Amino acid sequence: MIGIIGGGQVGQHLAEAASKMGVKYDLIGRQTKRDLTRFANENVNFDVSSCKASDLKELAERYDAIIYTSSLRDVMQCEKDYALADKLNHLVPRILAQSRPLVYISTDYVFGKLDHSHPRPVTGKIGEGEDPESAHFSNGPKSVYGKTKRNGELATLTNYGFVVRIASPFGDWASSLRPSFVSNMRFQEGEITIPRDQIVSPTYLPEVAPAIVGLSLSSVGAGNVYHAVCEGEASYADIARQIRRELNISGKVIGRVSNESDALRPTYSALQNNRLQKFSHWAVALQNHFERGRYK
């Protein structure tokens, strides 16, 4: 029995994958969230943002393993409320990792900006073994979101859990609180300007969710980092253009240089997947995504 903590888009895709795989699970979140109605029979009402350490330990004891998807993802809110960001992104998973095998869902935001005065020893996408706090990446993330997620990673690895990094996730459902980039682009018409110098490898959740559930059932490879992302890399401007081609949305996408409002995001954070099976190229994943017709 696994516990999936977090009822956003990642948690919902994991719950569906577990169901299809015949894995018993609980989706742990707030029952008042409308996103969770389809999982009513498996939903456990629990709010990690207001719980005590003893409550977390008691919750963890119900399960053989836990997948932790909850976090404070709003980058600007993290800057304003460090205590809440640290609790959700670091302290809660640290307690859980001490109690049960933990799969911690992390992010490409743990990397800082590329520092060309300290070139990386490898070229291309960022591998699982590269240190986010090295000089190559400006000695770590600059945002509170990235720093607290990195601390959550370290707490998980110290306790021999699994860290799974995803980036710009999209899939059949979008979070009602924080829609994905792909979801937002469906409603942008006319001429738009999108950063051309922020390079990522997005995550297609319907493909990667079964692999993440599989990690929670295994003890092989514990204490390691995994990148669950599409093949290839692209700027956000490239992704926006591809979405418009798939949906026949008119209007020019103008690539721009990142400005101060983008400063908290790493410019290059395309992740290389070396430890999980290969997933679709990002452009193919977008095509499959819209052909499925289940997106929101």
Structure in a nutshell:
With about 300 residues, this protein is of the alpha/beta class.
Q: What would you say this structure looks like, in words?
A:
The protein has 296 residues and is an alpha/beta fold. It has a domain at 2-172 and 203-231 and 273-279: NAD(P)-binding Rossmann-like Domain (Rossmann fold, 3-Layer(aba) Sandwich), CATH 3.40.50. 34% of the residues lie in helices and 14% in strands. The protein is built from 9 helices and 11 strands. It has helices at 9-21, 53-60, 75-80, 82-99, 144-158, 181-185, 205-216, 236-247, 282-292; strands at residues 2-5, 25-29, 43-45, 65-68, 102-107, 162-166, 192-195, 199-200, 225-227, 234-235, 253-256. A 7-stranded parallel sheet has the order 3-2-1-4-5-6-9, sandwiched between helices. The longest helix is centred in the N-terminal third of the chain and has 18 residues, at 82-99. The chain is globular, with a radius of gyration of 18 Å.
Order of helices and strands: EHEEHEHHEHEHEEHEEHEH
Q: Low-confidence parts, pLDDT < 50 over ≥5 residues?
A: none
What is the CATH-assigned architecture of the domain at 2-172 and 203-231 and 273-279? 3-Layer(aba) Sandwich
Could you estimate the helical fraction of the residues in percent? 25-40%
What fraction of the residues are assigned to beta strands by DSSP?
Answer: 5-15%
Strand order of the largest sheet: 3-2-1-4-5-6-9
Which CATH C-level class of the domain at 2-172 and 203-231 and 273-279 is it? Alpha Beta
> Using DSSP, what is the number of strands?
11
In CATH terms, what is the fold-level topology of the domain at 2-172 and 203-231 and 273-279? Rossmann fold
* Average pLDDT rating: 90
